Amino acid sequence: MANADPGRDYSDEDAAMSQASAPMEENGAHPSPGSSKQNGNAMSHVDRYGFIGGSQYTDPDDERRLPSDILRKRELKWLEMFENWEKWMSKRFKKIKERCRKGIPPSLRSRAWQYLCGSKFLMENNKGRFENYLQQSGDPKWMDDIKKDLHRQFPLHVMFTSKDGYGQEDLFKILKAYTIHNPKDGYCQAQAPIAAVLLMHMPAEQAFWCLVSICEKYLPGYFSPGLEAVQVDGDVLFGLVKRTSPAIYKHLKKQDVIPILYMTEWFMCVFTRTLPWSSVLRVWDVFFCEGVKVLFRVGLVLVRITLGEPGTLSKCPSLYETLEALRRLPLQLLEEEGLIQETLRLNINERDMEKEHQKQVQRRRAKEKAKDASRSKSKTRKT
Fold this sequence. Notes:
By secondary structure, the chain is mainly α.
């Protein structure tokens, strides 16, 4: 079995099930979400991100678009940065960060992500390795797990609707290659949606090296057996909730709503299963630039938006209602620009996060030490 199952897209599966049970059109086909009738037939509408329905579908009438002149200016600025990337990274990183927070132009997002995470360098210095991985058979256990998960990744996106389509085929290649690249960790289901998002923006080999960078540089230990790194970061998030939203912290503490119950999918899947799609991409722009602290900032905002409104906590009298609220986020409040601005307004900096991380690591070590001492004492009594 794979390590965890936060990669399953229940919302998309629910949408697909709902679609399957919907009344059929005259031609025997089910109307897809976001479709209209033309000459008596259902015509699918594909949004600009490639979705034909489900929770990720973006209605063109609702989306926020930059004026074309502003977009062109931003594109030119990014192209200028690409020409002297190392210089910008070493001497003007603050400006790069500022431009990532504004949003990377869609036409340059793929290239920018690769530059930001260093995968371009990885690929250039490992020529032929990806193809070599693909020629190997791989561990049958991991191959079976990957194949079982392929159809679950964004089934209402044009790349992944078909079982034998190029999207699922490339997704298999990337995930298989990673198990050979890192046989110790193998495959974790949460890697699949991350790899799928990368494939929406770039070819398979480029997506693979981006995945390597995310797993090894941004989220080390997240996809290892036991998920210890995720558990530690859950405790860190809880500690930061205590600082930023004391009333919510007390509520969660009283009901024993431990972080691993609600933040696992958020962090491990980098919010691909959580936010409106335009917001997912904006979060990824900042994540690739600033790293894991972005996950904490977004997580804190989601907790505050969900449980911070007056009267909300009283509507969540038990663990069940609280978890339901955290799992069914108010998407209308998670629009991309507002979400990013909320993360920047938080009164939490990187030093605060680091202190909390050290505190939680020491706390876990003390617990483990106490357990070891207890086990040792128990063994002594038995002998």
